[in-house]
Structure of Sulfotransferase 1C4:
Amino acid sequence: MADETTTDRNGDVMILARNNRGRLVACVWNQDMVNGLPSLPMREGDVVICSYAKSGCHWTWETARLLMSHHEAVVQQTEKEQCMIEMSTLEKLEALKSPRLLNNHGFFDEQPLSEMIAKGVKVIFVYRNLKSVATSFYHHHTRFQEYNYSATFDNYLSRFLDGLVDNDSAFSYLRGWEKGIAETPDLKVHVLSYEEMKKHPMEELRRLSKFLGGSEDEEFLKKVFEETDFDTMQKKKAKTTLYFDSNGLPVMYRKGTIGDWKNHFTVAQSELMDSAIQKELGDSKMFKFQYE
Ligand code: A3P
């Protein structure tokens, strides 16, 4: 997977790469893992978090880790980033003790589906409203040097809408997952919304813990809630996260709110996004985007 300089309709460039299905991915990902994802060996007890970039994967990973730690042989004390399939190697994943809590940004049709079904793997699928995703991704792209990218937010938005980012088009990604989940009833999938987790944390924690076969004890869930609250996580993970920007700030823990997109979008940009979402995902039954 050679680095690819992508030029958008405004002439801005971003360094990415392309997988063997022709989809754009990050140039720092391990190409063997990206292209080998569909045939990745799975284990009984594995849990895999799947999400489009910037949809709350770190948060969900830490939440699931704590929920699983309570009821199973303790999930290995490690970081989400070390359990990301695209950044790992077969040997490193093999070395993780069960139950493994993995994560990836692959499209539905790139998942190791037959292995997942055969081994009873549990999949947690997280999504977030796309105005927040675009906002968060803009900061991600401008803060990580490997993209060699700088542009205004306005220019960025057309790049995002055109799917010229690692993780490719958010619309295709989400459509593919909705269709895949609907057509694959044997796959164990739990769908989570970032905004629902923010607004109704205890309810969502209870649902998730039930899916994972864990405790629904109120006190325990409250502790998990406190441990995974944004401020707590931002402080705690500043010591352990692998990714910092050139100012030494942890890129993966930025604002952690529902409404920060309003500080970036003009009314016209918001309407542009609304009409793109309507056109691309207007008939979705699964995605209920919440903006505040
Ligand atoms: P923002 O950039 O909007 O703050 P991912 O983990 O999928 O890359 O998503 C990153 C986004 O999730 C970032 O969004 C990050 O700040 C936010 N996030 C990380 N931890 C969180 C938490 N504990 N609660 C809420 N949001 C969190």
In short: The chain is about 40% helix and 10% strand. The mean pLDDT is 94.
